[in-house]
Amino acid sequence: MNSLANIVQKNMPETLKNIPQEIESRLLKLAALFLGLYSLILTLSPAVRARSWDVDYRWAHWAGFAIWTTLVWLTHIRLRADAPDRDPYLFPLAALFSGWGLLSIWRLTIVFGLRQSLWLAVSMTVLLFGLRWRELLPTLRRYKYVALTSGLLLTTLTLIFGSNPLGVGPRLWLGFGGFYLQPSEPLKLLLVIYLAAYLADRVPERKQFIPFIFPTLFLAGTALLLLAVQRDLGTASIFIMLYASVLFVATERRRVLLISTAILLIVGFLGYYFIPTIHLRLSIWFSPWDDPSGSGYQIIQSLMAIANGGLIGRGPGLGSPGFVPVTHSDFIFSSLAEETGLAGTLGLLTLIGVFLARGITVAFHAPNRFRRLLAAGLTAYIGIQSLLIIGGNLRMLPLTGVTLPFISYGGSSLLTSFLALLILLRISNENEEAAPLPRPQAYHFLSGLLALGLITSALVNGWWAIVRSSDLLTRSDNPRRALSDLYVPRGTLLDRNNTPINQTSGESGTLIREYLYPDLASVVGYTHSIYGQAGLEAALDDYLRGIAGNPTTLVWWNHLLYGQPPEGLDLRLSLDIHLQEKADLALGKHQGALVLVNAESGEILAMASHPTFDANMLDEIGGSLLTNENSPLLNRATQGTYPLSAELNALLEESSTPEIRLLVGQAEAGFASPLEVALLAAALSNDGVAPAPRLALAVNTHQSGWVVLPALGEARTLFSPAESRQLSTTFSNTETSYWQISVAGTGEEDALWLLAGTPKNWSGTPLALALILEEGNAELAEEIAKSLLGSAQ
Amino acid sequence: MSAPVLLFLRAAMTLSLYAFMVWAFLLLWRNLKTQSELLSIRKTPPLTLTFTDPASNPITRHFRHPEITLGRDPHCEVYLENETVSAQHARLSYHHGQWWLEDLGSTNGTTLNSEEVDTPTIVISGDEVHCGKVPLKVRFALDDLSPNTREI
User: Fold this and answer.
1) Which of A10, A42, A114, A346 has the fewest CB atoms within 10 Å around its CB?
2) What is the ipTM of this complex?
3) Beta strand extents in chain B (DSSP E only)
4) Nearest CB neighbour to B3, from listed A27, A350, A561
């Protein structure tokens, strides 16, 4: 009898006598509890989205849960008989990972969930039969060349018969009647088996290192070449790293690691300049923000999903991981991060760490060199592949299209992960004494590298989920904002007499934004799921969305509960719809812009820019607006800069850019925007003082009613009171009650400026007007001035 | 009302994940303790080697670690300065409750009690080992034998 086992039994605490069955059973129960709660939340999640109990609940994923429970329970029972001395942590960890992945896939796409469940059944069956086959490890050792060569042959076949289940993309799969196999997945496993068997049979001699490793270099090089031809860069880099890891632990030479790191760096460096695929991958990694809607889209969406998860996550079914392309496979980590948050992913990273630690422990306890190298190699495989894709999702490493072992969607990947688990369980089941390990440093070094990778991933994950979270979520290309606009009403934009201009109507889930006064489109702007935001809708978004002006606790609570902002706040603008109608009517089809301002307070009463567009029709006309040569999207009143005449230029001594809640064109000397000229006119009617312009007057908050929004800029003194009175007297005439001056702009364009304003002794609201016409029609200009100022009181 | 209920469930779900983790760590900790207790009762029985140096002085050395390399390389634990000895000649190692002798591919071979050593062979007290032409005497005190060996 093995007396060591007796000693272990005697020294064990009472509760752990029947290890490992007991440990495994408790861990599996906790995993089942976690997955059960996940499923329950997923079922109830539609109620939270609709904020009502009267909804269609989600039930489909319970099939996945049932399949998982049955398979895991059966395997657990069989393990007792087939592998009584196995490591008791590996199977529960693998079960938790695959269950978590399975439910996430059901949550994302039901059809994929069903397929993944079938693959899980296949994988568990292979695990069970593999455990009963006692000759598994000796067979692998004996047929190492056959195994690796057949793996290579299958991979070669994809060059000829390769296909892609999606129809597009790299053709890395072999299809047989609806089922697809990716041979490069098991190839990684075969490489580890081959290397472990080869290196265990020979002890390296000092002077003949190259001849000694030559056969391995040849086979690994062939595999690498194949993968390079296939453009499967992720698997190729895993290959180099796996080869280096196994060779390193077998020979204990650090040079192996240095050389392979150098090779990876050189290939990356040369590839950046000469190979388009590598260049693209690396430049996306360096600067995804350069092209957020094109090549950088996927990684930026991944980071936004992680940011949206925050600390505790939105909850299963409550996030929007579907915005990230191929989220079920390559990007499953960001999908987990969005729905379970940093808390969930830190747990995941820790558990991956435990899995790797157990893998290395299995290697330490292995009874011979082959099994030790094999266990270490398989642990390195799980660790390296996990780190590579998690790092890719976190923008810590360049993105490579590999799967997250046990978790990602994909039959070949899941099966390969379970084969690795099978071999690890098989090795751990030997109760022979461990083989001597004279120099364990290489194993320590490898474990240290993997641990370092996991810790770095956790820190980077925290960086995106906590530190950079709000910056990412408030980006205008965050699709979650458009989504929450469908569920949460935005505030209404009102004119100074509380007439609605832009408002939201409809039912929660199908809310739409209505633009009641379409001619104002270039000023008040729009909020659209495809074309984003413009004008005041963009500038005042925080109030309209309810993020600003509401108590922070309310915003926080709504984000925690629903992942959405609270209801938006209404805003009152300085615009007067009656004056605005007159201005738009007067400008009609003529191109130009005008600004009518209260000369004393700086409140903008009317602002027109023609031609304009109807924001209600954005779905139909949005694309053509961008290319329209008359630039209807441009707000000419603030963004347009027009050449000044000599007289106007003399009046406007120093040019400045007025601060208002809209984009304002930066004028060079000799040019000015209508808004700036309107403030000049206001100075002439207001004792030489140009008021700070105001467009948003007040916001209607829940606690304190209407709260005034102050002007953004400062009033400026342009003339002395005497100067301004003298100038306005010079410009006045007997026909009108107000002063006015119209001058043709210099420059090639046939533009015409008109300035007008009420005189100093005016008893009503002091008004000032600036008008630019992109045609030299002085008569029309005077008519417009008359229609606006003639009736003003 | 649905959202607070779900918030509670979400917290419970995260807690269950951490319960899994904490339980795994607790078990690992206990396992570690058992292992260290196990290791503390298992030690390498000391081994004594007697041989002669080139000046024919007898040398006796005691070893307590589980691996001893013999050879003409000065880095070897047992440095044998003789032209019939290879740089890395042979290895004595303790595992599976026994001391084992193996030849490391030496030019002139290793013998144990005049028999060629071509596979790792168990060594017992009083054995005579020849590395090339250098004789070595192996001894270990009986009361220092491994507990495993005694029980079997």
Assistant:
1) A10
2) 0.82
3) 47-52, 58-63, 67-71, 78-79, 90-95, 98-103, 110-112, 115-116, 121-123, 128-131, 134-139
4) A561
